[in-house]
Amino acid sequence: MGHGKEKRGPLTDEEQQKKTEVKEKWNAWFQEAKGLMVNAERTPEETAGLKTVLTKLLTVNPACYYIWNARKSLIETELASLSPEEARKVLTSELHFNTASLLKSTDNSKIYSSWYYRRWLLSQLGQEAWLAEPAVWMKQLAERDTRNFHVWDHMLTVRAHGALSEDSWREYAMNGEASNYSLWHQRAGLVRGILDSGDDVTSTILREFEEVMMANAQDPTGTSYWHYFVWLCSVVAKQETIEPFAESIETIVALAADDPTTALPRDGRRCLERGLGLVGRGELLA
Amino acid sequence: MSVSLELEKHRRFIVGFSGSSDSLQHSLSDYLRINGIYWSLCGLSLMDPEYIRSDFNEEEIISFTLACRNGTGGFGGFPGFDASLVYTLSAIQVLALYDALDRIEDVEKTVSWIASLQHENGSFQGDHHFPDVDTRFVYCAVASLSILDRLDAIDCSKTISYIVSCQNWDGGFGLKPGRESHAAQAFCCVGAVSILKSVDSIDKDSLVFWLSTRQDTNTGGLNGRPDKDPDVCYSWWVVSTLAILDSLSFIDVPRLVTFVRRAQDVVDGGIADRPEHMADIYHTFFGLAGIALLDETGGLKAIDPTYALPVDVVARILG
């Protein structure tokens, strides 16, 4: 879609030549793949050749959904004639290939078809493979793009397969930077689960207000935790009384106004107004 | 500073883009060609409905679009490519622009294929290759069937319930239940419930607030999620959703329009994701579409925020 590409001048002759070469290779490989795919009676050598050319195509253009579909069809056909042990080797090799593709670049890590292919491989390999996922992706989330919603989606799917312990998930999702909205989203999911259980509702809400205070101290100009504040106020508004939470709310308002040199961001202020409105304490900002 | 809208340059950019078949990028983007055709034609239609006939060969495009349909009844991104909901909607939108929906032979096959992708809980997967669901696919299915006047083919009640389950703590919508809110998913979910005449089933107030905080105070541009950079395409995803919810007053319109106009390439035409970046067909269309929704002085035709098609085309389809 062309996100994030800076405008530049015309290509040099050398750059143009290189692009022409890649285009010619792409077109040739694509025609080769199509030719092999239509042949239902492929020899083993032709099947190996098809896998090789699909690898080349996916290396150049992993965004092409059609090629991932073709690879799945190829592997499915291959698996049908293999023993469980042999099938495992093939699927494991495919998983390594898919991992390398996803990790190759930020753009690659945002390709839907690549993630779909991965989850298909995991479903074929079974629980042991799902259990190995956190080690790969939690590290990626921590070190690379912590806002990549594909990785977050995948980790939640891994969790749904029972392959990520609640403790590990909580440790990750509830110990992050103040300005990472994706972490606040995961946090809200976890806390909602705690609140829904009905246990320690008051102490949980109070603890979460403290998290907002700490986030504000860490990043006074941030806005992510202000959205979380709005949600907490909506939860408070549903309690029998707001009294247990009044002091926390007043403290947060005071913190927001504390340092006149650090202007509350416009959206932070709007969130503060909205939250206070939900609990009927709008006068605190008067 | 007033930044004029360079419509004639954008027109040339769109036409030129489609003719750039020699480039590497053209080959590599074959898989979403039908999306590109829809963005191009709809963008031109917003300037002048006749451009899609004067600047392009209507019959060639209709034939190409129909050639993207395969034996399943669904459409792929390019002739010979596998069918997927994402390309099926664009194909149907292209045929709608040319008033050529009746050129789909055995349209029931397409309807059945779309309906076959619905899950028991009302969600949709994108094709029959992978079972992954996404609210994008919900919108694509619902919009496609609405244009074909066959919403009766799916369980609309379950679809509505599913969309409601995708609304998050912050009022936004994610790609499935429990996933982080994203403005493009908000469009998909709200667009779908709007078509299904059930906008009241969602928490409109929370969503409008969340969408209204997408505007960057420095540039006036809109982002898709908190703390992300502004991007011209959100001038459609966010604005159209707010338009459906009758809540455009929550956006500083002049500042947003200025942001989009500044993302224009005033030399070669086209619109980029943000100022000083390279223009592309996707951002050109969504930039024009956003301005068409907002700016009465842009010289653009009116666009329907639910179907992302000119209002006269939608009026023709929905009769």
Describe this entry's structure for a reader.
The complex is a heterodimer of chains A (286) and B (319). Chain A is built from 13 helices and no strands. Chain A has 286 residues and is mostly helical. Chain A folds into 3 domains: 17-124, no CATH class; 126-173, no CATH class; 174-286. In chain B, helix 6 runs parallel beside helix 8 and helix 9 packs antiparallel against helix 10. Helices cover 49% and strands 1% of the residues of chain B. Chain B is mainly α and 319 residues long. The interface between A and B is large, with 55 and 50 residues. Chain A: GO terms for molecular function: protein prenyltransferase activity. Chain A: It comes from Carpediemonas membranifera. Chain A: Residues 1-20 are annotated as: Disordered. Chain A: Pfam families: PPTA (PF01239).
Quickly list its features:
heterodimer, A: 286 residues, mainly alpha, 3 domains, 13 helices, B: 319 residues, Glycosyltransferase, two-stranded antiparallel ribbon, 2 strands, 49% helix, 1% strand
Produce a short descriptive summary.
The complex is a heterodimer of chains A (286) and B (319). In chain A, 72% of the residues lie in helices and 0% in strands. With 286 residues, chain A is mainly alpha-helical.
User: Unreliable segments of chain A (pLDDT under 50, ≥5 consecutive)?
Assistant: none
Instruction: Give the integer mean of the pLDDT values of chain B.
Output: 95
> Sheet with the most strands of chain B?
2 strands, antiparallel
How many H/I helices of chain B? 15
Using the 3D structure, state the CATH architecture of chain B: Alpha/alpha barrel
Please give the largest β-sheet of chain A: none
Helix vs. strand class of chain B? mainly alpha
Question: If helices are DSSP runs of H or I spanning 4 or more residues, what is the number of helices of chain A?
Answer: 13
What's the gyration radius of chain B in Å? 19 Å
Q: In one word, what is the shape of chain B?
A: globular
Query: Cα-atom Rg of chain A, whole angstroms?
Result: 26 Å
Strand content of chain A: under 5%
Strand-pairing-aware structural class of chain A: mainly alpha
Helical fraction of chain A equals over 70%
